[in-house]
Amino acid sequence: MVLNYIWIGFFVIAFAVGLAKLLLFYLGYPEYGGTTVFTEMMKAAFDMAKVSVMDIGLPLIGLITFFMGIMKIGEKSGVVNVLAKIIGPFFSRVFPQIPKDHPAVGFIMMNFAANMLGLDNAATPMGLKAMKEMQELNTDKDTASDSQIMFLVLNTSGLTIIPITIMNYRSQAGAQDPSDIFIPLLIATTFSTLAGLIYVGIKQKINFLDKVFLAYVGGILLLIAGVVAYFSSLPPAKLQAVSSLVSNFILFALIIAFIIMGFVKKIDVFSTFIDGAKDGFEVVVKLIPYLVGFLVAIALFRTCGALDFLLTGLRLAVEAIGFDSKWVDAMPTAFMKPLSGGGARAMMIETMNTKGADSFAGRLSSIFQGAADTTFFILAVYFGSVGIKKTRYSVAGGLIADMAGVIAAIWIAYIFFD
């Protein structure tokens, strides 16, 4: 229901802003308005409808088909069950509705691991499979279960240990040290994830003082600290190469482990892959209407100029109370991130190109890009894949995680780069 109101809001706001710009033009304020605004919005809508299918939907078919096939091998070979047992004690506290040895646990773990390694393309198929497994346990098929909400909010918090893609974009933009945002980004995304976990945990009455829960969370934080310590010791030029190697090696090693284990267990590995791949194709076909609907709405919101009005108002408000406003230059990335990964990426690149990759705004926009994930896109895609219509407090949880990431990013950027 919340997504319904948000979707309607994008269209209504876009129309209202477009109408205001048109009126301002005819009232003698051409610098604030224009006669082409509705033409531009409709062009953006048509273009995004095409992009949703041709540039996002079709590539997803190949990607998700491949990984769904691989994960089917992992499921039948028993690797997923092994992963489930490793993380089971912790997940039984965070996802109490999921049985300890249920396949969903292994797929959730693999999804989180792929996200942490910055492998977004691999994370999506694993997340869709996890959502499908949780939906089988869901007694009310139209309404998000507690487990699905926790999973979605932790996903939208975007915990990333190795931000390969962002460092690559910074390198392309001419940054002297593309990896200088590595530690600030890691700190910001950790704040985002903890905020999402705490909010949903309070709603679901999770016992944060449970010894097992504290032990696992402490272990994860120690792992993050260890990663920071190791990568901080590397020369900047080497850090990017090593992080890329580690991430992709781990992913390929996991694929090989699935295949070898399947061979050892004497299952028909290729036939199993084909069975899983067929499921992947069906999943993407179901996703396309959700992709088109939300991405067109976001394109209208972006094109109408609402974001520009929002930034102007924010800058004036910050300066009126006497605070430094240079962080506002990076806010387009923060505003777009919950709505569209591609839009946020474009904003980050534009900020680095106009302000400079090594400017305060350029660095902060990079931290914003990695501090959280595309909340509305993830909600639409993951819930859409299993037919969830009532999202309960998922949107609130995702946005709280996003807000925590933004606030932490600004604070940390001033500490590191001011």
Polypeptide structure, described:
- 78% of the residues lie in helices and 0% in strands.
- With 418 residues, it is mainly alpha-helical.
- The two termini are 42 Å apart.
- The mean pLDDT is 84.
Features:
single chain; 418 residues; mainly alpha; 78% helix; 0% strand; globular
How would you sum up this structure in a few lines?
The protein is mainly alpha-helical.
Question: Which SSEs are present, and which pair or pack?
Answer:
Layout: H1 2-26, H2 37-77, H3 79-94, H4 103-116, H5 120-137, H6 146-156, H7 164-172, H8 182-203, H9 211-232, H10 236-264, H11 269-303, H12 306-320, H13 331-336, H14 341-355, H15 360-371, H16 375-386, H17 394-417
Q: Using the CA coordinates, give the radius of gyration.
A: 22 Å
Q: CA-to-CA gap between the ends?
A: 42 Å
SS summary, helix count: 17
What sequence of helices (H) and strands (E) makes up the elements?
HHHHHHHHHHHHHHHHH
The stretches of 5 or more residues where confidence is low (pLDDT under 50) are none
Query: Strand count, sense and closure of the main sheet?
Result: none
Q: Helix content range of the residues, please?
A: over 70%
Oligomer: single chain
Task: Name the overall outline.
Answer: globular
Query: What integer is the average pLDDT?
Result: 84
- Summing up helix and strand content along with how strands pair, one would put the structural category as mainly alpha
Beta strand count: 0
Q: How much beta, percentage-wise?
A: under 5%
